[in-house]
Each structure stands twice: as structure tokens, then as C-alpha cells.
From TrEMBL:
<feature type="site" description="Important for catalysis">
    <location>
        <position position="189"/>
    </location>
</feature>
<comment type="similarity">
    <text>Belongs to the isocitrate and isopropylmalate dehydrogenases family. LeuB type 1 subfamily.</text>
</comment>
<feature type="binding site">
    <location>
        <position position="249"/>
    </location>
    <ligand>
        <name>Mg(2+)</name>
    </ligand>
</feature>
<keyword id="KW-0560">Oxidoreductase</keyword>
<feature type="site" description="Important for catalysis">
    <location>
        <position position="139"/>
    </location>
</feature>
<dbReference type="InterPro" id="IPR024084">
    <property type="entry name" value="IsoPropMal-DH-like_dom"/>
</dbReference>
<comment type="function">
    <text>Catalyzes the oxidation of 3-carboxy-2-hydroxy-4-methylpentanoate (3-isopropylmalate) to 3-carboxy-4-methyl-2-oxopentanoate. The product decarboxylates to 4-methyl-2 oxopentanoate.</text>
</comment>
<feature type="binding site">
    <location>
        <begin position="279"/>
        <end position="291"/>
    </location>
    <ligand>
        <name>NAD(+)</name>
    </ligand>
</feature>
<keyword id="KW-0963">Cytoplasm</keyword>
<keyword id="KW-0464">Manganese</keyword>
<keyword id="KW-0479">Metal-binding</keyword>
<feature type="binding site">
    <location>
        <position position="104"/>
    </location>
    <ligand>
        <name>substrate</name>
    </ligand>
</feature>
<comment type="subunit">
    <text>Homodimer.</text>
</comment>
<dbReference type="InterPro" id="IPR019818">
    <property type="entry name" value="IsoCit/isopropylmalate_DH_CS"/>
</dbReference>
<dbReference type="Pfam" id="PF00180">
    <property type="entry name" value="Iso_dh"/>
</dbReference>
<keyword id="KW-0100">Branched-chain amino acid biosynthesis</keyword>
<dbReference type="InterPro" id="IPR004429">
    <property type="entry name" value="Isopropylmalate_DH"/>
</dbReference>
């Protein structure tokens, strides 16, 4: 089983190294064996090869059984004109591999209720998934660009969806809801946007094939409030690329920290990409401060969805919960009475827990 490891920039390599450690612990003592090969992406690749997604990286990723991704980009490279930086390595990879369904599970670990800045009563029992469309929307719509008109700088992007693009991610949402609590909330801005009106029409059409799943529609601005006010009312949220990006970062706080949120980007056929929802966190990079649990939980999703190793995935998740139950915390989820660990030590603790659980 081949895993392409694309660690990227900032804390990407730090947290990915801990996920690799956890995978090695799964392999130990006659466990399943993984062939893990690293390749550059993001600023690291741009500085070395003049391209944030070198052809060799794209090819290796496409041929792998699964991709473990860290984080890409820095504040400096973010602002370089797209043509000067070769676009965004991660966005290009998602598009090339047609990874349209991005699952971002938001689970409030009972062990972490005291670490959240939100009240225990507000987040207890939260278990939802943000399913974000990942290969279309304003991220990829054309025309896009910048220019000067009447002496004024101006810039434009295009929000665009086809019915096929909406239908396939909606189906993925209904299928996911069927395996959960059978509630699907489609999130749009249909009071303003044509793309959202199409989104809602297609949601209603696809719903006819899933009479056992309850469909409701909510506006994205209201959902950003309801997610904080009544998060237990959500099971599966299906939404477009830009709305999903924003809502999932907000929802991360229901778990205690963005450092707890994993994700799986899938297309139902080929290779899947697994990455923490957070970015390269330049403010804490290189300081052994980053929480590696989002990356480790992403490796668990990789085992489950791409390699079909359910028992091993569940074991990795159990090891994470055990370490939390034993009171170990990184700084972002620290609480009174807990033991503070750095990135490496947290990775070691999870790897040890995996080995112990395997017996
Ligand atoms: N998937 C990706 O590759 C990805 C995702 C988001 C942002 N980015 C890029 O990362 C850079 C930084 O972006 P940003 O600051 O908006 O978002 P960020 O997620 O990198 O950081 C936001 C805040 O959360 C904290 N944080 C993030 N991950 C953490 C972790 N594992 N443990 C503890 N704290 C953590 C950071 O320290 C920071 O204070 C930018 O260049 C951005 O474009 C990349
Ligand atoms: C780094 C950036 C392009 C990316 C996105 O906007 O998709 C990130 O914020 C994410 O959530 O994966
Ligand atoms: Mg984001």
C-alpha cells in the first residue's frame, strides 16, 4: 500500500511526521505494511523547483493509494500574483485528482469538553460533518483576474457551478447521512446568488432518491450562528467550496481547537487525500508547539477510506482518545491539571498508545 507523504510548509512537516509515526506503529509487529514516499509541495517545492506542484509530485500522488498532506503556503507567497507563483499547489492537486468531496468531521471529544473556550453544555455530544465541495465554485471559476479601468485597480472572480458538480457532492452527502443520523442540511445563499439557487434546486432533485433522509436548507450566514448556538442540530452539512472553507474553521472551535480537525478529500474512485483542516501556522512553526492530532486523525481517515483498514483506523482513533483521557495536551487544548506536551512528545504518546492497544 503506497502512501504519498506531502508535508509542505510551516508546521506541515512537524505534524505530518507524527502521523507517519502513528502509521509506523500500526505496521509494527506484523501489522499492514505501508510504502511511504515523500515529495515536495507548496513553498518548499517552489523554492526548490520553481513550481508549488512539480510534475514529479503530481505523478507520485496520482499513482499512490492515498496521500497524506500537511499544509502549504505562507503569508508571503499567498500574496504573490498567481502567474508568478504557479497557482496554489494544493488547489491544483485537488483539481487534478478531481477530489470533489471534502469531509470535515467535527466531533467534540468528551475528554476535551473542559479544554474548549465554549461552555461544556453547548458542545457536549456534538458530532457533525461538514461536506465541502472542493473542485469548483469561486475557487476555480473563470474569468478571474486583475486590471485597471478608468485609472482604478479592479479585480474579479467568478462563482460558477454546473448541475453535475452539485449533484455529485449532494449524493455523497446523502450517502453519508444514510450511515449517520439521516439529516442533511444544505447550506447556500439562495436569497442572493444564482449559483445557490441552482444548488438548492439540485439538492431537492437529488433528495427524491433519498426519501429516508431529511433535507433542510439554511442560509450560510445563519448557519455560522446556529453552528455555535445549537451545534447538536447538525448531522451532515453539504455546502460549496468557499462556504465550506469558512464554516469548517468556525466549527473547529466546537472541538476545542483547529488542531483537532482532520479531513478526507475523495472522489469515490481514485486516490484520496487526507489533511488536517488547519494551515501552515507560521506563528508557531519550528517551535514544537503544533497540535499533531488533526494530522494523526487524518491518517486514521486514510486507513479507513482509502486503504479499507477499518480496525486499524478505529485503533488509531482509540489511541488518540486514550492519550487525551490520560490528560496529555498540546498548548492549544491545554486545561488546568493536564500535562502539556510538545508536538513530538504528543506524537510519541499516540504511537506508544497504539503499540499498547495492539498488545
Ligand atoms: N491546507 C492548507 O495547506 C492550508 C490551510 C489553511 C491555511 N493555509 C495557509 O497557511 C498559512 C497560515 O494561514 P492562517 O494563519 O490563516 O491559518 P492556520 O490554520 O495556519 O493558523 C490559524 C491559527 O491557528 C493556529 N493553529 C493552526 N494549526 C494549529 C495546530 N495544529 N496546533 C495549534 N495551533 C494551530 C495557528 O497558530 C494560528 O494562530 C497561510 O499561508 C495560508 O494560506 C494552508
Ligand atoms: C490553503 C487554502 C487554499 C485552503 C482552501 O481555501 O481550500 C485551506 O484554507 C483549506 O481549508 O484547505
Ligand atoms: Mg481553510
Amino acid at each position: 500500500m503506497k502512501i504519498a507523504v506531502l508535508a509542505g510548509d510551516g508546521i506541515g512537516p512537524e505534524v505530518t511526521a507524527q502521523a507517519v509515526k502513528a502509521l509506523r506503529a500500526i505496521s509494527a509487529n506484523n501489522g499492514p505494511q505501508f510504502e511511504m514516499a515523500e515529495a515536495p509541495i507548496g513553498d518548499a517545492a517552489f523554492n526548490q523547483h520553481g513550481d508549488p506542484l512539480p510534475p514529479s509530485t503530481a505523478e507520485m500522488a496520482a499513482k499512490a493509494d492515498a496521500i497524506l498532506f500537511g499544509a502549504a503556503g505562507t503569508y508571503e507567497s499567498d500574496l504573490r500574483p498567481a502567474e508568478q507563483r504557479g497557482g496554489h499547489g494544493l488547489l491544483r492537486l485537488r483539481k487534478q485528482l478531481d477530489l470533489y468531496a471534502n469531509f470535515r468531521p467535527v466531533f467534540a471529544f468528551p475528554e476535551l469538553l473542559g479544554a474548549s473556550s465554549l461552555k461544556r453544555e453547548a458542545i457536549e455530544g456534538v458530532d457533525l460533518v461538514v461536506l465541502r465541495e472542493l473542485t469548483s465554485d469561486i475557487y476555480f471559476g473563470t474569468p478571474r483576474g486583475r486590471g485597471v479601468e478608468n485609472g482604478q485597480r479592479h479585480a474579479w472572480n467568478t462563482m460558477r457551478y454546473t448541475e453535475a458538480e452539485v449533484a455529485r457532492v449532494m449524493r455523497a452527502g446523502f450517502e453519508a447521512a444514510r450511515k449517520r443520523r439521516r439529516q442533511l442540511c444544505s447550506v447556500d445563499k439562495a436569497n442572493v446568488l444564482e449559483t445557490s439557487q441552482l444548488w438548492r434546486e439540485v439538492a431537492i432533485e437529488v433528495a427524491r432518491d433519498y426519501p429516508d433522509v431529511e433535507l433542510r436548507h439554511e442560509y450560510v450566514d445563519a448557519v455560522s450562528m446556529h453552528l455555535i448556538r445549537r451545534p447538536r442540530d447538525f448531522d451532515v452539512i453539504v455546502t460549496g467550496n468557499i462556504f465550506g472553507d469558512i464554516l469548517s474553521d468556525a466549527a473547529a472551535m466546537l472541538t476545542g481547537s483547529i488542531g483537532m480537525l482532520p479531513s478526507a478529500s475523495l472522489n469515490g474512485e481514485g486516490v484520496g487525500l487526507f489533511e488536517p483542516v488547519h494551515g501552515s501556522a507560521p506563528d508557531i512553526a519550528g517551535k514544537d508547539l503544533a497540535n499533531p492530532l488533526a494530522s494523526i486523525l487524518s491518517a486514521a481517515l486514510l486507513l479507513r477510506h482509502s486503504l479499507k483498514l477499518e480496525a486499524e483506523a478505529a485503533l488509531m482513533e482509540k489511541a488518540v482518545r486514550q492519550v487525551l483521557a490520560e490528560g496529555y495536551r498540546t498548548g492549544d487544548i491545554m486545561e488546568e491539571g493536564a500535562t502539556r506536551l510538545g508536538t513530538e512528545a504528543m506524537g510519541d504518546a499516540v504511537a506508544q498508545a497504539i503499540l499498547k492497544l495492539k498488545g
